[in-house]
Structure prediction request, 495 residues.
Amino acid sequence: MNEPNVAINMSGLDFRQDVEPLIKEFYPLLYNKAGGVTVSFALEDGRMRLAVGGTSAAGDNVQVCDAAAEITEEFISGETDAKKRHRAYRNQLLRALYRLLSGYTGKELPWGVLTGVRPTKLIFERLERGEAKHLQFMYDNYYVSKEKAALATRIAAVEYQLLDAIDYRNGYSLYIGVPFCPSICNYCSFGSHPIERFADCIEPYIEALKKEIRAVSSCFPGRVLETVYFGGGTPTSISAKQLRELIRCVKESFDMSGVREFTVEAGRPDSITEDKLLLLKDEGITRISINPQSMVERTLETIGRRHTAQQVRDAFAMARRLGFDNINMDLIAGLTGEDINDFDYTLSEIEKLDPDSVTVHTLARKRAARLTTEGELYEGNEARDVAQMVETAASFMKAHGYEPYYLYRQKNMTDNLENVGYARPGKEGLYNILIMEEKQIILACGSGASSKFVRDAGDKRFERVENVKNVHEYIDRIDEMISRKLDYIAEHGIS
Ligand code: SF4
Prediction:
């Protein structure tokens, strides 16, 4: 794959990591296919000059802005706090860049200059401080569209209400990663492993994981474990016996008396069997996911899911029959080859199943996914009507009694859109809110799992402690994975 050729020259402060994602949003093709962009910033006499110029790769018709803009806003005026000055400066710079690129391309981005993962966090924090007028600052500061600002504000209010009912500040959550799947989807960037090829690793992996679970189980004696989430991968890819072993290990190692939600992402219907669902029920799992992504057979085959729509219907019916009353389904808008008719069909099939919550993702093109690394296989078969799909999903959810309750964004999302979780009242996934809003410590075990610790040094900064992604390395280096977390916790006095 060709790497994009991007040069960013700045005199003064280094904002490259803020500037680059915004340019990518305006020129996704340029970044996908390689090309060249040069961005220059200069500060002169307290004013900022900004120029964007570039060249496209040979044969690539993407136009690149070649213009300059003078910034006349009175920035950083009156702000004495260094951090706030820095933030204000960055925001003004991004707004200037946005105006320049939008003027040149004629494009408006739904999320304006916001390229981060958590747009609702900005509003949530204001709600915590008792501030109102959330919509206005989203347009004024970040150029977010009225529709997206309204969506984010509505979701933040729902989240705030849900979290207000629990003592999340004194709690923590546990994530357990099982990185195996029946096959690997073409958009997957989770580092999951096809289970047949990795059959020899499963037992050693489970042993290593149990060791990690036991070793970290007494990290927070003063906190209440509130949610547990088994994800991956597809946790139901392993056998019923192995899955029970892991669940039992968690239950025997941690104090489970405060757990409000125990989710297992059953995920792929081709991994779901009656004995696995029975054991999940028997072990008290409160919430599961059965994820079709699409109900169009042609799409399922193209994206490499290796299961049929009928398997989704059968797995769902079985779970309902066995008494699961909180089932989530994940969908993706923008899958290879789909248009609005395919997406409408999927929604009509979901309507018949009537799940308790639905998460609607927008396809994100990830560097490590086959969709990117083997891009030529899918070229010319890209999805159409993605924004329309997302709007249709929102109307469908409203009409069927689902409320949007969490939202997050990823890099390289189609059409600058978002992922939204919808749920019927009382069926929301608390873990999803806690991790997305960064409201709680997440202790994470398993290969590729990323623990998040809050350091309350005045600014409630979250830091990650990550495990290695490679399963073999995880098994071989399990003691190091354990020490990483324990050492970090001890060093920073987190309790
Ligand atoms: S089911 Fe999920 S984790 Fe597994 S390969 Fe597909 S996208 Fe990746």
Notes: The CA atoms of residues 292 and 312 lie 6 Å apart. Residues 1-5 have pLDDT under 50 and may be disordered. The longest strand covers residues 35-44. The radius of gyration is 23 Å.
